[in-house]
Structures are given as structure tokens and as C-alpha cells.
Amino acid sequence: MNRVYIKTYGCQMNERDSEAVASQLVARGYRMVAREDEADIVLLNTCSVRDQAEQKAIGKMGYLARRKRRDPHFVIGFMGCMAQNRGAELLERLPDVDLIVGTQRFHHVPDYLDSLTAPRVEGAPVPSSIVDTEDEAGSQNTIREHLPDRKRVSAFVSIMQGCNMACTFCIVPRTRGRERGRPIEEIVREVEGLAAQGTREVTLLGQIVTSYGRGEIPAKDGKSPFVQLLERINAIDGIERIRFTSPHPRGFNADLVAAYRDLPKLCEYVHLPLQSGSDRMLRSMNRPYSIGKYLEIVASLRDSVPNMYFSTDIIVGFPGETEEDFRATREVFEEVGFDMAYIFKYSKRSGTPAETMDDQVPAAVKEARNQELLSLLHGQSESRNRSLLGTFQEVLVEGRARKGDHFTGRTRGNRMTHFDAGERLVGQLAPVRIERATASSLYGSLVLSGVESKREAALAGAPGSHC
Ligand code: SAH
Ligand code: F3S
């Protein structure tokens, strides 16, 4: 009765939360299993950002509830954003659900499962559903455990929770609450611990990481708390690469732009959510920057690091978006030349200001605009990848590919790379000569069979590695 399967929807924050819950459950004597049909307990860690993500999880739970009706000992629960957003209301539609735990209460899951699975005498009443979506001060500090016994070359580290912005389309401030950062020392200790266990790359996570520590940690030498944190992590031995997501364009001041130049471990890949290329739309979305300002940030980052890779988030079909607004988005999309992008069709979220805005855009128009940007992206991404043909890229070897015998890893620009290697190179930085490129992946060969470390790779004079 103690085999648990967690299915995760949505973003990397959710992946990280699921992992922390899994690790707490393992510590409590539960066993994590890889397949839902092997589990006695199934938890869905949910996403609310778009309606489709909620519908998927609800559909899945309906399916699980059918199994529960045959097997009353089977335990099913919702965690995370949709649990927070909808709470007990979910029970009206899905009365068989045992557990609903919101985004600030993940660390109580082991206790709740203990009580739901406690042995009961025959005929005793079945425990009623547990719903907990309370706010809890300090809950951002509870997401720190990592699953033991797994070599983790690249790890996610949660540095903050919540968002104080008020983008008119976004439900995150409601599902994740106000901004709360973890103390710098605690994050540094976590990353040092990861490095000691073999982690080489960390991705710092939060809903708006560039606001990390704002109002809590004073600026030092003109550097924001976030940049101070990056500097501390850059100094940790064993860590070779730093990434972060998701920032906000307004956080890209001179100190952060300079960090890309000055901190060798900070990879030249930036996710810079644009949302729309039209100033009129940005105002209506309550995004506090103009296209002019956005392009200035892009230019300053390129000045700082000429081979920077850019990724973004775009929403098409926001209420009131005209052909002209969309054309402006297309233009900015091409002008920046994004290498990667998450393109979303606007989805109405209840309780957000955009929900009741006039001029909602028809689904077919959203779909067409979505396809148009996807095809632009495909071309841009492919041509950037093709520009790497014949070059040497520094790849962090992550492990064997899920399918096939070869190995995979990523370049500093976050491009997935496939190559032949040996187990002993896992966790190493290795130069790969790029021989084939598609829009999504690079294929190549390791340059030196004996390369053991970044230093040797650098000595071998691998161009393109600038770590
Ligand atoms: N900073 C946050 C952003 C949250 S949502 C983070 O990365 O965690 C991620 C992206 O989803 C947003 O940048 C936006 O492009 C998209 N998004 C948010 N609400 C949306 C909605 N109602 N409809 C469509 N896309 C949305
Ligand atoms: Fe959402 Fe805007 Fe914050 S997109 S997470 S309210 S910056």
C-alpha cells in the first residue's frame, strides 16, 4: 500500500515540486514507482496556466476515479496550482478524490498520505477527503530535498515562490501567492550539496527570479540580490553552468547584463518573455515595458555576449489583438531572431482582468497565428543550429539517450546534442564537433576520446567552449 506515482503537468517549478514531494515520501518509507498501474497512490501535480492543462488533469482524474471505485484502497490526489486555484470545488465534480493540496502545503503530503493509508478495522468509515490550500509563511523554504541515489548532472533549484506582478492574463499570482525568496545562504548550501554529489549544472527556478530578494536583501555595489546570488553560485567549485527561469524583462538592468559577461558559468542563453510585439497589447496585458525597451535589453545582452541565445514566451490571440498587432509580434520575433520560444494561444482564466475584456479573438484566428509563429520559429531555430555545423561545442554529457545507444547533452546555448560516448563521460564537459543539425537537435562526434574535464577540453583548444 505504499507505492506512489506522481504525474506532473506544467512547468519546471512543478517538476521540482514533485521531486521534493517524492523525496519526502521516500524518506517516510513510501516507494516511488515509474508506472501508474503499479501504484497504490497516484498524485497529479497540476497546472492552471491554461485551461487545457486543467482539463487534462481533470480527465486523468476521472479515469483514476473509475479504478478507485473498483479498489477502495487506491488513493488519488491533486497537488499544486489547480488544487490551489479550485480547492474543494474539485470534489463536486470528482467526489472520489482523497487529497487536494495547494502550492504552499506540499510538505504536508507525507502526513496526509499516512493518515489516508493508516490501517483501518474492517467496516470502519472510510476517511473523508483532505483539502488543504492554506497560505503558509516560509513555505518557499520547504522545497529543497532532492531524490537520493540518482546521479543528477543537471538539477533544478527553487529560489523563490510567487509573483507580485499583475499581468492581466495570468493566474500565477493567485496559484502561487506573493513573492517569497529563500535565504541566499540556504540556496548556496543546497547547491554546494548538489555539487558534492556530482551536479554540474543548476537551473534556478522561480515565477519571477529577477525579483529575487527584492525588498528583503539590500543591493550591494549596485548589484541586485539576484545578481548577488548568481555571483555566489558562480563561486561554487564543481558547478560548471548556471541557468535560470523565468525572469522578467524589467529585471534586466546593467548589473544582470554585466553578469553574463563577468560570470563565466552563466550560460549565454536567456529566456526573456516578450508576450507581444505590440505596445498596445503590452499595455493591455499590464506588462511594464515597451517594445523599444525590450529591444534595448536584447541589444545590450548581445553587446555583452555576442553569441547569446534568446528564448521567449508569446501569447497570440490576447483580447483585442488585431492583424496589425500580430504583424508587430511577427516583426519583433524576426528582428530578435529567437532561437527558442513557447508560443501560447490565449486562454481565458477565471478571475483575471482579461477574462472580461471585449474583443476576445476567435479560436481559428488564434490557431492560425500560433501556426505562423511556430513555422517562423522552426526556420530560425534550424538556421541557428545549421550555423553551428563544423564548429566545436562544449556539451555537458547528461547520459544515455532514452531511445538508442548514443548519449545526449546540451550546449551552453541549451541545444540538445546527440553523440557517441562512454558512461565515464557522464557529468563531464566535452567538446563535440557538430556534423548534422535539425531545428531541434544537433548531432556530432566527441573530439577527443580521452577528454576527462573541462580543463583538458580547453587545453585541447576547443573553439566554441567559453565556459
Ligand atoms: N514567470 C512565469 C510565467 C508564468 S506562465 C513562469 O515562467 O513561471 C508562463 C507563460 O505562460 C507566460 O509567460 C505566458 O506567455 C503564458 N501564459 C500565462 N497565462 C496565460 C494565459 N491565460 N493564456 C495563454 N498563455 C498564458
Ligand atoms: Fe504571471 Fe506576469 Fe508574474 S506572467 S507569473 S503575473 S510576471
End-to-end Cα distance, whole Å, is 48 Å
Overall tally of domains: 3
Radius of gyration (Å): 23 Å
Low-confidence stretches: 450-467
Structural class: alpha/beta
User: What is the fourth-level CATH superfamily of the largest domain?
Assistant: tm_1862 like domain
Instruction: Outline the biggest β-sheet.
Output: 6 strands, parallel
How confident is the prediction overall: mean pLDDT? Answer: 92
Bound molecules: S-adenosyl-L-homocysteine, FE3-S4 cluster
CATH topology group of the largest domain = pyruvate-formate lyase- activating enzyme
- Roughly what fraction of the amino acids lie in strands? 15-25%
Helix content: 25-40%
Number of strands: 19
- Helix count equals 14
What is the overall silhouette? globular
Characterization of the model:
The chain is 34% helix and 20% strand. The chain has 14 helices and 19 strands. It has helices spanning 12-27, 51-70, 81-86, 89-93, 109-117, 172-176, 184-196, 225-234, 254-262, 279-284, 291-304, 323-336, 363-386, 454-459; strands at residues 3-8, 31-32, 41-46, 75-80, 99-101, 130-132, 154-158, 160-161, 180-181, 201-205, 241-245, 269-271, 309-316, 340-345, 392-400, 407-411, 416-419, 429-437, 441-446. It has 467 residues and is of the alpha/beta class. A hairpin with a 3-residue loop joins strand 18 and strand 19. The chain has three domains: 3-132, Methylthiotransferase, N-terminal domain (Rossmann fold), CATH 3.40.50.12160; 139-313, pyruvate-formate lyase- activating enzyme (Alpha-Beta Horseshoe); 392-459, Beta Barrel (OB fold (Dihydrolipoamide Acetyltransferase, E2P)). The model is unreliable at 450-467 (pLDDT under 50). Helix 12 runs parallel beside helix 13. The strands form five sheets. A six-stranded parallel beta sheet has the order 2-1-3-4-5-6, sandwiched between helices. A five-stranded mixed barrel has the order 15-16-17-19-18. S-adenosyl-L-homocysteine binds next to strand 13.
